[in-house]
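Try it yourself: sequence plus glutamine, in.
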Amino acid sequence: MTKYIIITGGVVSSIGKGITSASIGRILRSYGLKVGAIKIDPYLNWDSGTLNPYQHGEVFVTHDGMESDLDLGHYERFLDVELPGVSNITTGKVYQSVIDKERKGEFLGACVQIIPHITDEIKSLIRKTAEINDYDIILIELGGTVGDIESQPFLEALRQLRNEEGHDNVMFVHVTFIPYLNAAGEFKTKPTQHSTKELRSTGINPDMIVCRSQDPIDDALKRKIAHFCDVDPTAVVNAPDASSIYEVPLTLDKENVGKFIAERIKLDVDVESADLDQWKSIVKSLQKQDPVVTIAIIGKYVELEDSYISIREALLHAAAKIGVKLNLEYISSDVDNLDENELKELDGILIPGGFGERGVEGKLDAVEYAIQNNVPIFGICLGMHSMVIQFARRNSMDNANSTEFDLDTMYPVIDLMEKQKEIKQMGGTMRLGSYDCKLIKNTKAHNLYKQDLVKERHRHRYELNNDFREELQNKGLIISGTSPDDFLVEMVELEDHPWFVGCQFHPEFKSRPNNAHPLFVSFMDAAYNFSKNK
Ligand code: GLN
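Structure, out:
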């Protein structure tokens, strides 16, 4: 039977509910439990695929092809699992499913209402997710902040879930923020009291309160919060700002979070057996201060670091693996000219994925710079497209381009995939999720993966145009990975360059702190070597 831990947020958004949920999951996993996670996003979009990264950060792609919230990435990295796409529930999905049923006449003439029809649908989606992998525990993180109009049906459904599944099988964790007022010289608990009151007005009493704060809070303050918010004093825990998100499971473990949860929902585990040793050593490697390797992500969504969150994490995992400190810079490609002085500081360049023409010429300039200066360069999806386009341009295919940006180019080296040509609808229609990629022997790709066939996640409509495949190869572009039927080019590289690798897929989604992705490790290694010889 699956038990549920529901995580709500209060006071302000962006306090790290996702990391808190993932960290609780990590602790429970260390007891040998099978842990899954659900993210509820109360917005009306069906999925996050149509959202600009500036809205909610990166679009994470699950192995089964769901375009989902970035918190699923945190869960996958902390729990070291692959979550099914149904783990992301949105208002859009809930309402669409209920309306579809209504159109089919499934409600037999009933007036369809938020309670019970929408709330029943929410519970049914949650239970379906629980069944898929037979989880012992599912963490359910409710996005947004308690009090938001759009999250009300979800709170009601979650309240009902506790009644139906039983008090011993469902618990609520409320994550709040404790501000420090400089003028008063003290931490303030009132916003937490208010948000807990707001939560209680929905019929939900939190069992545990995780207090986020800039600096640690003391026990007297925790007792005060326990008193005013009606929770057990041992259930008020503090998660002050950490230098790395990977420290949070260790912080929560010290606060005895696992022990409290195990007692509260009667888990049949030995809390003393928790094994967080491997996690501790990861945190230790991440604390390494030298040697420093400077990598830049050169893309167009650089003003919001969350836009490239899985890439950042994958680079961190790789740096920890080879024992260097990552100095990560974000450089906008949406400029007339990249700053050469800035580029000279770099040991490696990463061109990420993206959509639309803005900032593409800057990416091409970055590719040119990397080729001319032998700087290791890694292109992901649109990054690989940029590599192919620039390679074509410097090999006498003037103005070569992708038809995503120029329909009339003489050299459409990147073109819409055949299957995409008939598609009109935007949402969920790209080539999405895990596909096999065959690696060609004696290439960098094959050497670093050390496998003939790999599975990687995709999210794209455009692809290297087979009409130009031979010409590009004749001019020196190495095709190092293809779909198993040879039809789609999945990886490219250059021979006479220290590290020039592009991939059509998104390897960043599969990197784990305990299992850094081979492509990122090899790239980081090349960047480290470059830094030593500078
Ligand atoms: N815009 C490109 C495509 O659709 C690249 C997508 C991406 O980088 N994820 O193919």
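One thing you can check immediately is this: The chain has 18 helices and 23 strands.
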